[in-house]
Amino acid sequence: MTEPLSFELSRPAMPPRLPSAGQTGPAPADLLPAAALRTRPPALPRLSEPEIMRHYSRLASLNYSISENFYPLGSCTMKYNPVANEVAAALPGFAGLHPYQDEDSVQGALELMWRLEQALCAVVGVERVTLQPAAGAHGEWTALRMIAAYHDSRKENRTEVLVPDSAHGTNPASAALSGFHVVEVRSGPDGRISLGDLESKLGPKTAALMLTNPNTLGLFEREILDIAEMVHATGALLYYDGANLNAFMGICRPGDMGFDAVHMNLHKTFTTPHGGGGPGAGPVGVKADLVPFLPSPTVERVDGHFKLDHRRPQSIGRVRSFYGNFGMLVRAYTYILAMGGDGLSQASQDAVLSANYLRKLVEDDLEMPHEGPCMHEFVASAGRLNHEHGVRALDLAKGLLDRHFYAPTVYFPLVVPEAVMVEPTETESKATLDSFGAAIKELVAEAKTNPQALHDAPRTMPVGRLDEVGAARRINAWLQGQSDDPVLRWKAPE
Amino acid sequence: MPYLVHSPEDRTAMLERIGARTMDDLLVDIPRSLRIDALDLPDGLSELETMAEITAMAARNRVFADRLTFRGGGVYRRFIPAAVAAVTSKPEFYTAYTPYQAEASQGTLQAIFEWQTLIAELTALDVSNASLYDGATAVAEAAMMAFVHTGRDEVIVSGYLHPEYMQVLRAFGAGRGIKVRKGGEPTKKTAAVIFQQPDFLGLLVDARSLTDAAHAEGALAIACVDPISLALLAPPGEYGADIAVGEGQQLGLSPSYGGPHVGFIACTRELVRRLPGRLVGASHDAEGRRGFVLALAAREQHIRREKATSNICTNHSLCALAASVYLTYMGPEGLRQVAETGFRRAHMLAERLAALPGWEMAFPERQFLNEFPVRAPKGPSLARKLARKGILGGLDVSRWFRELKGVLTFTCTEVNDERALDELLAAIG
Amino acid sequence: MADRRYTKTHEWVTVDGKTATVGITDFAQSQLGDVVFLELPNIGRKLDLRETFGVIESVKAASDLYAPVAGRITEVNQKLAGKPELVNSDPYGEGWIMKLELSGELPSDLLDESAYKSVIESSAGH
Question: Nearest residue of B to residue A71 by CA position?
């Protein structure tokens, strides 16, 4: 089933009834020169409200979402999105606030931000947290700018950032965007960072090492205390990528491991919903040395009164407009209140337990490149399946869609060929995990007896595999469907 | 505990299957010295208690009625149709993951394709992306596009750009090595000229001249535009701008103390490969059915890594969906009516304010749409006086621009009915 | 037409008098997958030996292109803008990428057919 575009459904409909300006006041054409005015109205679709609601309901039915299906996506922490969070964020007392209201009139909002900051400090073990960044990559860049400012303030010319070869792509991208040269550090055969290679690459030009722990293979970097010492001994700082924070809340803390800047994803660990690609929020925690460089303004509490502190002379400045994705901060804070310290600790323990259980269920079907135990996620490989039966990680992923599971993360991390990364999270029942394990067994069996079936998957989705190469070559995102391809061409309404 | 699904029996069964005796066997890689017993946080609360605390916190904020809000400065009260929340609160949309597996994400992908097309239509440019965080970072991303495309490392900001957008531009520029100059003429060293239309004070600028001046030196023209104004004003594509950016909050998003809102970016064909972030394209499957996919992913951070134009990964997809619903609900006539109503009301208000003793328009020779700067007489805090009557009055812009001492900007949209204007005037006294 | 020579980074070059023609190898195109775009330099640009002169993109990867010889760019294959797939279907023929006017001697470390074959074989172990 495909649903036409709103542009294709458009027909001459009545515009909605809106408050009229009456005749009082001049019309734009009365005052503005013709050259300043639009010559042709925008060709937006015209649809009545019933048609609009039906259109979007039909589009919704074409989507998988965590509300219906398991998303075993490694590194994404697709856990349940509590509905209470949505109620909280929609309260008029939060949703109706203008960012330029006087501080006295938003004490509740400032208090929420302050308390959220305190809670995140407690979870990760840092001194302060900035809530400004709008997403993980944004937070990452913010942290690197603070690190750059720190070295600048000490008149040190540090131009390099070290990134493991298993790192997420935003790590080197953010480093380059911050003006650093990226140097890759190799992983050892056990999947963890090679201390020997790290040592050879650390030096007086090193500004920071970016690490996630557990790493992108779901393995805890056992030698983290030694790594921190090595990095600090050269005068560099240690940055934590919080993608995998769900592994150890209440078990250990990045701050205690020696990390100087700790990034977090509220849309992963703290349940704010993914929204089909965002919005999220990427707060960054810092130790004392980096506090002066925090983005401005910060939220302070003075004698029980909350205020925005703009007077921060060493701040790296603003990283976005206003104070942060406040609506997402409300959701995360509501979650933290409900879970509490005891709940968050249990959540991480259950996440680790579920991942190890699921790994056990599939260990005979998929290759496990590294020894267990894993933490909250594990990486398997379809390498042998590919070699012996021509079935790749992508085929397994598409085969899972037909069995009503979203695919795990595939082809990441790059250090494992035909990688399949699985993160169940703590909000999937044992029964769901058992079904997923059974589905993998089925798929692997099918791969051995009838691989073509998997190359043709998915067959039960609204569309089959789409020609991504064609889309990339011709783009086909142009206005008014300009395209040589008749299937893709569409005409804007008159 | 809320949202956790395993019973003690489940946990025991799972440990057994794994072959571990206790959780500690699974946590064996963590050095003992790092282990903590508990988090330094209070225990969790029931939903009843949680919502009581949250509601009490919300009650410690003051919400001004839409109709009595006359303050803009980048965030505006607008009529938001109920349809917007009805669509964005569908779990299939708001709990969905990023649409990497296209076959399972056609709803999100098509909705974003429609958003891209709506923005391209509004701005009259060739292509738009799947959204950015906000107007401020959109300006910064456009500057980075120009930097990468021209190889020149200076951008010029002409006129009154939103001061927070300027701050963000400088922060991004510092990281990338882009020099930001305020004012001045473009030269062969200029990558782009950036201007806001209408500007931060609400005043119209000569977009066409600014664009021509940029092009004359081989620089790009970046227009930061108000999306609702595009129902009336010549859009960037009509005057030849290369890149259009802006803030989409007015398209169906509540103020929410500054976020999440949504940034948009659109450009000409020539620049499409420089576009940051995700782009949805149309394609088809083996049966010839049309579908939508993420296109040009090779531009993005997860493939280009350190060579990407930008590092953006998660964007503001759900906010873009809200904006799409809003624009689809309004249609071209509805949007025009919204823009025109604001125009008429604001001009009425400006006339009445300027008639008050000691008040005058700050730039009487310049045109405006629905936001305008006035000079108010010195005296006891006007803002507090108005707040006592439940009115959120004009924005004091002297906090950013020293040369604008005593200047306030006032905004009118379709939510400020005529009686509200009377109340405002009466409260000013 | 002179013998093809290769680089460790999977470019090929043939030389005819003072003109060098450059492309990527069959191995490279098969590793990349379907090519969707090439970011190519301007005619007239001078390239040093092994300087990055462009980027080749597929759906899943983007790779830098390195100049196998030093010289001044005299021609760029315009057909690749509309038909990047030529790099996949005919990497040594129609899928040529650029022509250079050679400056100086040919580098001594260009690989011949069998040396390049060993390079491929050792990397295939990954």
Answer: B97
Burial of A291: CB neighbours in 10 Å, binned 0-12, 13-18, 19+: middle
* Chain A interface includes B47 (CB < 8 A): yes
- Please state the domain extents for chain A: 84-339, 349-462
- B42 shares its domain with B155: no
Contacts of C84 in chain A (CB under 8 A): 473
Touching B: A residues 431-450, CB under 8 Å: none
Task: Please calculate the CA angle B77-B80-B85 and round it to the nearest 5 degrees.
Answer: 130
Q: Does A176 touch chain C (CB under 8 A)?
A: no
Interface test with C, best of B150, B300, B305, B307 (most C CBs within 10 A): B307
pLDDT by position in tens, chain B (length 429): 899 999 999 999 999 999 999 999 999 999 999 999 999 999 999 999 999 999 999 999 999 999 999 999 999 999 999 999 999 999 999 999 999 889 999 999 999 999 999 999 999 999 999 999 999 999 999 999 999 899 999 999 999 999 999 999 999 999 889 999 999 999 999 999 999 999 999 999 999 999 999 999 999 999 999 999 999 999 999 999 999 999 999 999 999 999 999 999 999 999 988 899 889 998 889 898 999 999 866 666 666 665 667 888 888 999 999 999 999 999 999 999 999 999 999 999 999 999 999 999 999 999 999 999 999 998 778 999 999 999 999 999 999 999 999 999 999 999 999 999 999 999 998
Q: What pTM does this model have?
A: 0.94
User: At a CB cut-off of 8 Å and minimum separation 6, what does A4 contact?
Assistant: none
The CATH number of domain A84-339 is 2.40.37.10 = no
Boundaries of domain holding B406: 66-79+333-428
Residues of B within 8 A of A136 (CB-CB) are 313-314
Residue B280 lies in a domain: yes
C-beta separation of C62 from B305 below 8 A: no
Q: Taking a C-beta distance cutoff of 8 angstroms, is the pair A130, A124 a contact?
A: no
Q: Measured between beta carbons, which residues in chain C are less than 8 angstroms from residue B273?
A: 37, 39
Rounded distance between C-alpha atoms, residue B392 and residue B394, angstroms: 7
